[in-house]
TrEMBL record:
CDD domains: WW (cd00201). One of its GO terms (cellular component) is nucleus. Signal peptide: none annotated. It holds the Pfam family WW. This is WW domain-containing protein.
Amino acid sequence: MLKSTYKPSANPALPPLLPGWTAHKAPTGHTYYFNEATKESTYKRPGADAPPAPPTPQPQDPHASFFQYSAVPRLSDPATANAFLAQYDTTRQRDAQVIGQHGRGGHRGPNDGRDRPRPQPVDKPKSKVAIPGCEPWILVYTKYGRRFAYNPVKNASYWRIPEKVMKGVLDLDIKGIREKVEGVKTRDESLHAEMAPQELEAEEQVDLGSDYEEVEVTDDEEVEGDGDPDDDNLPASKRQRTEEPADEMAVEFDENDIAYQLQAMGEEYGLDPGEYDDGRPENWPEGAEGLAFSESDTKELFKDLLNDFSINPYSPWEKLIEDGRIFDDSRYTVLATMKARKEVWEEWGRERIQALKEQRAKEEKKDPKIPYMALLQQKATPKLYWAEFRRKYKKENPMYDTSLNDRDREKWYREYINRLKLPQDTLKKDLTSLLKEIPARVLNNQTPLESLPSQLLVDVRYISLDPKVRDPMLAAYIQSLGPPPKAAEADEDEAAKKTREERRKRENALAKREHIVAEEKRKQKRQLEFGKAALREEERELERANQVGKKGLQSQLLAAQEKSDVQ
């Protein structure tokens, strides 16, 4: 149902009609007015002009906000947008008013003009120089020390120096630095030439002053000054000279003096020359410097060092030095020079490689399965079937060895290919279990990686793991093992026993030598500290002797006289 929106007029009572006017209703329902005298009709009520009624507040229309900004001009045009901002931006208008008041000498307000930005200095070009080799470019320097490149042909300036003129600018900078250095040298030379006569005159005055001081020292100066450094009764020239510190030359001790002191102390304490190093080793008795090793002993000790650290004989010398694992071992210093160490290392490498080859040949002759497993590790892939692998590598020695039949070869090949498909964690666990199965007499902490036991080499669990992962794992496991059992030593042949006994003797001799050297170092350190203390005491005595007090020579003479009286 529709609801009427008609609202009665809020106007007051209508005024009466003027004489001659009558009100009528039209067929449409509208009221109109007719004047019989003038035959005039109108819809507007004729009458006296009433005061305009106050406008009534209209209800808030929610749709009126759309038409509120309909008169705002379109701001897509920059000119229109600037004009609109200039008209409606009250902040700029207020700033303009404040600036206008300041210009007319008005009051600055509470901020006292601090809202205005500080004036920036104006930088101007000061000098210019042509860039060599980059004409017509020039380098312009400004008043504040900045510079820019300018091209007068293009009338373009660049704060960032272009790449094509950078070389010329660098040449200019180098030239300027050299000129500054030459200027400083020239100025120093001129100052030195000017100061030379003045220094000569000053030296002459110092000589005269020293002579004058010797003449002025008398027996009456204690009476005059009472030895007080702050006494004002002293003559001005004398007080000035005595108060100045004396520039005495420091006493210097060279190596000969130290050697002499050490020799004196060594003779006093009954030490051998080798124990305090008197600087003349050619005069030392035999054995004074400790036990000496023969050349063969030093070489064997260094080779034992390489064997103990399980050095790979196939790795280069630079890698061994770069690792630095052998530096902390005392056997590293038995050879004096790096050249000698490298020569012994090369000799050890040749011997070690030859021994490994012979040992590998013996192992392969004992068990022909070892070279075949090595061939599988190098050549076999899951992409090749057994027939293809056999046809492709039939000329290899392990493939036509009569001690192995094709059935066994195929069995091991298929087992190896199937294990390659397993995850790496499973392969690691299998290898760990295999290592635990090997007895300690075969695999121990003295087993090198290059000569592993055949029980390990012929197992498919060993070759299934990638060597990059397997070798570090093996090295860590071998280091965690213990030494070989004593029963294994009893089974050694005579040559191995002899080699082991010689090594034990060398190690014992090295231990004794290290003990003797450590004792000598401790003795030398104590004696050197004692010698330094004695030298410092003598130096202090010399300094005390060179210090001349303000009392002059009389105080020294009195001290010497008292010392003689006491004696």
